[in-house]
């Protein structure tokens, strides 16, 4: 059963406690990365047999496999994916930024240009749970940014195939190449390249602890989007919220995996009790009841800020959740009060699942409190900014002594000389 805390009656350390999950996977991941670097495709085929229980004849998904998958998917679902793509595209096109120039009358030009990252790798989870939504969320911003090649990796099933919905979504989104590789070995292949898989410049996408650790270890060789932890939802609900809706929304994340976190913060102890009862009613009805049960019992909590909705918002800011629902009347009255959250869902008819699949904002979000300093995946993640500076001879002559004085103050005499040498007689 979910734990209920009355704010002020227990210590904040207990209320805000996070499970520090010691992954214990660092050495395993390091050995996998080294093996892939050394043995390339051979290592990938061996890991497919070991971890995916499949013998592959080829790592790359063929065009025929993609076409067959696309044609096998329910046409109604194809239309839903296309509509979701339109929504995601509309939102992310607003994120496109241009470069700029500042031209001074004294012959100085400074500015910044924006350039797409050339090659991007997408990690899409597979196996027991397939996420075609991740294909859309990770590839569409890259396409809008202008990346020249988008390479996707995803684990195969035991029959050696990739989930048809994932392949259909990749075709709709415009992914260039797809490979049947998962886990830390897939991240290593994207970072260092193999005979079949090209190395990329940036790797994005969620995964399990091994994938997250691998992204952490290859960072520096390539860029990454973030180190994603278990999924989180925090619902701020006022006393008029429907406990059935709130419980359902909490379970929408609890069913992800056993380490997912579902938290309710409310101004009503009566609502807290009703939501707890509703959770007990709804959990047994879920196909993934065992996962949801574990998540709610171990990581779930209800925090009661009695008759104080603003305190509830402050508590949410302290937690800085991945997903934040404002299940309150007049939610826009509170939007500016939210300082730390990955994505905010406004009102009592805006479940977090809208953001997972359809609304348009990205669902690749900062977790584990990193919303205090991180942002959702966006077009910005697929571009780089480069500065440029131009000075005429006359413009440099006016400031050369100042540049030299600054350099001398730092003890960098060659720096100083490079500015003054041009004007020595």
Could you describe the 3D structure shown?
- With 425 residues, the chain is α/β, with parallel strands linked by helices.
- It has 16 helices and 14 strands.
- It has helices spanning 12-15, 26-39, 41-51, 63-72, 75-93, 132-145, 164-173, 183-192, 209-218, 243-254, 269-282, 289-299, 309-319, 352-357, 393-409, 413-420; strands at 3-6, 100-103, 108-116, 119-123, 149-153, 177-179, 202-204, 223-224, 232-237, 261-266, 301-304, 323-327, 343-346, 383-391.
- The strands form three sheets. It has a six-stranded parallel beta sheet, with helices on both faces. A five-stranded parallel beta sheet has the order 6-5-4-7-8, sandwiched between helices.
- Strand 2 (100-103) and strand 3 (108-116) form a beta hairpin.
- Helix 10 (243-254) crosses helix 11.
- It is globular.
Provide a quick synopsis of the model:
The chain is α/β, with parallel strands linked by helices and 425 residues long. Helices cover 43% and strands 16% of the residues.
Spatial sequence of strands, sheet with the most strands? 1-11-10-9-12-13
Q: Would you count the extended β strands for me?
A: 14
> Topology as H/E string?
EHHHHHEEEHEHEHEHEEHEHHEHEEHEHH
Largest sheet: 6 strands, parallel
Helix and strand composition category: alpha/beta
Total of helices: 16
Tell the overall outline. globular
Q: Residue ranges: pLDDT <50 for 5 or more in a row?
A: none
Helix content: 40-55%
Strand content: 15-25%
